Amino acid sequence: MGGGVVFSDEEPLVAPQQDVAAAGAAEPSLAVTITSTLDEYDCSRSSVTDNIVTVTARPEDAGQQRSPVNLVAVVDTSGSMRSEGKIDLVKSTLRLVVKNLGGNDRLSLVSYSDAVTVRSRLITMDAAGKQAAEEAIDALRVGGRTNLSGGLLQGVDIIQANSKAGEINSVLLLTDGHANVGISDPDELVAAMRSAAGPQPGFSLYTFGCGASHNAALLTSLADFTEGMYYFIEDADAIPESFGDCLGGLVSVVAQNTLLRLEALNGATIEEVQSRGVITVSKNKLNAEAPLGDPQCEESKDVLVRLRVPAVEAKAASEPTEYLHATVRYFDVRDKAFVDVSSSLALRRPKKVAKDLQPNEKVRQQVNRFKTTNALDRARTESDKGNFASARGVLKTAIGEVSMAGDLFSSKLVADMSECLEGMLDVDTYNSGGRYRVSSKQQMHEAQRCNGCDEMYTTPSKRSMKARFR
């Protein structure tokens, strides 16, 4: 989960912004709404309220030309890739990537084993470029050890040297083992990647771990830093569909550098914010920021904001008070401009709250999602230490709480926690699949983005592209 960073009161996080969308322009690519657990709260006392800020991306426009995609595929060609026909599946998958890229897209291929080889530079996927890419794919051969750091840093260097503003830039890293050449310490490797990418990477990194011999924690950390995703490929046969899922998302990105700014009003204070990424909250609790990455068509990003509203004098039901203002600033890849969209939360403060007032179901579901991601994260930490009884206890408690909701969404959360619970029986079950599954599920629910064959959080673009890769 994102960690809070405190700023001084002299450095407010929220600055007035001018909407840059011109009058009469197309509907914004992102929309923002705020929903509270209840519509009204007792005016006689201070209350902490759960609120969900929802940012929703527009549907895909079939008639709209999408932004070019620049991909660097970094592929493990160590000797272990020979088993289960993995290298042949990777080759056929890369050919499908080439087939489904458009004439304005670009692709580079890097392989790594003992050494790192740039098989093809970042070339345009016109007819000649596709032929060159096919030849580079055909030339892949396996043998040697796993210089993962060398391959990754080479891929990062290529994408940074050749990326273009307003285009979709991404590195796809596939491995089936642990780094054993070059930088092999996971913490040092993450630090090296962060240093190479800089504080604000202009690309996303998607990692693919094949089989039960890779370092899931490393691949998850690498992907998290750039708001990318980690794919756990349990069976080599799932390699094509996993790449199809990833590509389907990349070709449907509608916004980049998305940032949510929050401002508490009329005596309210921001007590907590939960979202993916690094969250900043001002010292006076009046302002906060949360990065939301690069939303894809029809995705929703939900941010939990715990807001304390003060005791006030009673007001008429027709006079709600505004307590929270949210502004989302993003670069619109369609309009090639920065855009601001905003929304406010207003609540009624009567002397007596209606007895039949029901908590909002969407807020309850999202609170359950955050309970799930937090529980999976804690259970993974305990399991990594060998404390499997403690890990199971964490998940069992969360399962009991979330299952009380009874709705379909919460039931799916329970099912995923239960699946992860089965992988934490002992060291053998954890190492044979449990550790990879919990990393994948936790990140999927935290990012609200599909990262494999699971249909939860999938989008039409992802579903369509996966079908082409089957």
Overview features:
single chain; 470 residues; Rossmann fold; 3 domains; 11 helices; 16 strands
Characterise this structure:
The protein is of the alpha/beta class. The protein folds into three domains: 4-10 and 27-57 and 255-359, Sandwich (Immunoglobulin-like); 69-251, Rossmann fold; 365-470. Helix content is 34%, strand content 27%. The strands form three sheets. It has a six-stranded mixed β-sheet with strand order 1-12-13-10-15-16, with no helix packed on it. The chain has a six-stranded mixed β-sheet with strand order 6-5-4-7-8-9, with helices on both faces. Strand 5 (106-112) and strand 6 form a beta hairpin. Helix 6 (239-250) runs antiparallel to helix 11 and helix 7 (361-384) runs parallel beside helix 9. The two termini are 33 Å apart.
CATH superfamily of the largest domain: von Willebrand factor, type A domain
* CATH class bucket of the largest domain: Alpha Beta
Unreliable spans: 1-8, 10-24
First-residue to last-residue Cα separation? 33 Å
Backbone structural class: alpha/beta
What's the helix and strand layout?
Blueprint lengths: L3 E4 L22 E7 L10 E11 L11 E8 L9 H15 L5 E7 L3 E9 L2 H12 L9 H15 L5 E8 L10 H12 L6 E7 L5 H10 L4 E4 L5 H12 L4 E10 L4 E6 L4 E4 L4 E7 L6 E10 L11 E12 L4 E11 L13 H24 L3 H16 L4 H15 L4 H21 L12 H10 L1
Parallel strand pairs: 1-12, 4-5, 4-7, 7-8, 8-9
Antiparallel strand pairs: 2-3, 3-14, 5-6, 10-13, 10-15, 11-14, 12-13, 15-16
Helix pairs in contact: 1-2, 1-6, 3-4, 4-5, 5-10, 6-11, 7-8, 7-9, 7-10, 8-9, 9-10
